[in-house]
Structures are given as structure tokens and as C-alpha cells.
């Protein structure tokens, strides 16, 4: 029978999984496949697993329970294996790398930081603080017929938005990275101008959260910082 794989742990992990059911329309108990110094946490499945809300929550719940007992290498949602021998071979072949990763991630959790900015507030700031933009805007509002004015203003505003948000993002990263063992910055999307993840040691968790809270209170009008965590260290598994 096929197996859904949640995570990899060391063989001495406490594996507190009592009464934990797995993903799928007919949930099977979560169990362990051991191979040498490693274990894979799995459950039996008889269907193709899709990203339904219940299954996403179960996937996360299993990994969070494992995190409470020690380091874990979380797999992304949807990873399956054909059978136990397949998993055993993978664990044996990659044992050195998996063990090194477990040691590196021990005593840490992942946190996501995202930041966005209210577009109207940002535009007001640019028009108020940038003389050239303010002048162009006033000419347009006064009825100046020059057809190039809107394009010139739009280009100027776009450049200002990029410059200001890059500076904000850089400042936030610089302020929070000292609390992390590792970090990774991703391409922001949608309304966000910042999207990055940090691997924060447990003994610095409170300092980190206090620093993030302080930044959120100081950063200014129209800017929202969103913090998620502690999470399994998806972004730092090599």
C-alpha cells in the first residue's frame, strides 16, 4: 500500500503520535518506518491526496507534534512513497545528509515575516514629500493639457514606491536577522513588499518576537507586518 510521508526524524525522537490519524478520506493511524539511524513518519493511503483543508491541517498537526519532541525534517504537503522498502532505501542512502540537517535545525523553528503597505497612504506620502511629484499632480489637477504629465507622474511615483519599499524591506531584514541562525528572502507578491523566513533558535524566541512587535509599533502609518510561527523549518531543509 502507498504511504503518505510527513517528516523524517532521528531514531531517538520520542515520536509522540498516539491516536494521531492521517490524511485522506479514510484516515489511517500515523506510524513510523525505521531505517538505520532515521525514521520516516507516515500513514497508509489508498487515494491521490489533494490539498483539502482537513488534510492540510492534519499534515501541519503531525509536524507540530513532532517538533515538540525534537528536530524534524518536514516534507512539503503531498509527498508519497510506493511502499516501506522504498522509504527504507531513501533513508539509508541519504542518512548522512539527513542527520546533518537534523543537527543543524535542532532547537530552532521557522518564522515567516511578511509586510505590506496601504497604497493610498503611500501615495499621499509621496505627493507630500516629493516636490516634483507634488508639482506634476497639481498641474494635472489644475487642468494642464500636456498629455505627458500623467505618464511622467506615474513613472515618478512607481520609482518612489520601489525605492521606499526596498529601503523598508532592507531595514526590517537588517533589524530581525540578528535573532536568527539562518534566513532566506523570497520574492514578495501581491500587496506585500517583503516576504522572508528566519530560522530562530528557541532560546532567542522571546527576544525575536519582542523585536518584531517593537518594529510593528514604530514603522509608521499604513504599514502592516504579519508574523507566522513557530513553524516546521520547511525553508531550511537542504
UniProtKB/TrEMBL annotation:
PANTHER family: PROTEIN GVPL 2. Belongs to the gas vesicle GvpF/GvpL family. The keyword Iron does not apply. InterPro entries: GvpL/GvpF. It comes from the Bacteria. The keyword rRNA-binding does not apply. It is found in: Gas vesicle. It holds the Pfam family GvpL_GvpF. Keywords: Gas vesicle. This is GvpL/GvpF family gas vesicle protein.
